[in-house]
Amino acid sequence: MTEFSSSGSSMVRPSFETRQERHDHGRTLRRLVRRSAHAAWTPAPDRADPVSLLIGQGRSRIQDLLPIRYDRMRASPFAFLRGSAVVMAADLAQTPAAGPVVQSCGDCHLANFGSYASAEGRAVFDINDFDETYPAPFEWDIKRLGTSFVLSSLESGSSARQARQNAWIMVKTYQQEMARLAPMSPLEIWSDQIDLAAAIEGFSDKHTRKNISARLEARLESARDHFGLVSFDKNIPRLKVKPPLVMRLPARDETIREAFARYIATQPPERAVLLSRYRLLDILFKVVGVGSVGTYCASGCSRRPMERHCCSRSRRRRNRFWRRICPVRILIIRVSVW
Length: 338
Fold this sequence. Notes:
By secondary structure, this protein is an alpha+beta fold. It folds into two domains: 9-39 and 61-193, no CATH class; 226-336, no CATH class. 42% of the residues lie in helices and 18% in strands. It contains 13 helices and eleven strands. The protein has a five-stranded antiparallel sheet with strand order 7-8-9-10-11, covered by helices on one side. Strand 2 (113-117) and strand 3 (123-127) form a beta hairpin. Helix 4 (66-73) crosses helix 5 (77-83), helix 5 packs antiparallel against helix 7 and helix 7 packs antiparallel against helix 8 (160-181). The model is unreliable at 5-9 and 317-338 (pLDDT under 50).
């Protein structure tokens, strides 16, 4: 079992080994930590109480929204998994790890994958939630994703056998994708994308292909309408209030505006110059997801006079469940220009 260090040094250190050398090194690591070592999990004698972890995490959140979070988590085992990344992270920290460290998603479950537009305007498929991203053993994301496949399958009515099979297919697909990427250069891998439209066309089942295509088109149409977030008053865009999940917080207004300003300040020049042309007009606080309920998530609407508007979203949260590795506080802001 390899002890995980928070430094992430094994991830950021440049590697100039040949492919064969890396391949041989991987085989050595497999002998040290067999794949069968990941098959079972036994709670540690000093395992932290899951409820206590959730209560501790809730102390840094908006207290009035915690009942919404817990109510959403009670809906099903899969919903509980979505809201309890802190619990799984604590458990995974005690499991075997071969050694390679990656920039993990940190909350890699089935519902955190989806489609969004690339810089070129194409619909691509990928992870769409990076609130908990952090250097970690590569196995952690795979284990959380596999668990989500099992729970999601059971929730949708699949048998335990089929749920297990779905998780196996996911892991096998991951293995095949790694084999596909292995011969490629770092630049090719960096630029590699899953073109969603092309992937849908590759579905063998005609009914599934038609159904997914229709859902994608509906999603794109919703995006063109700003997902119903924007209304117009005398041609001036305003964000729609939908209490208690979407509302204005005047006491937090200045904090949110500072967050958007800091985001622009961190951008490379070619993006900063574009975003600097827009003025932030309206901001709303929004309750999102399951695990993110109670964190500060804001939507902003910006525009230039007599021109199209720009909608963006800011999320500010404490990355609490990495505390045992390295205390850290991060600000993540997502911006989409429509």
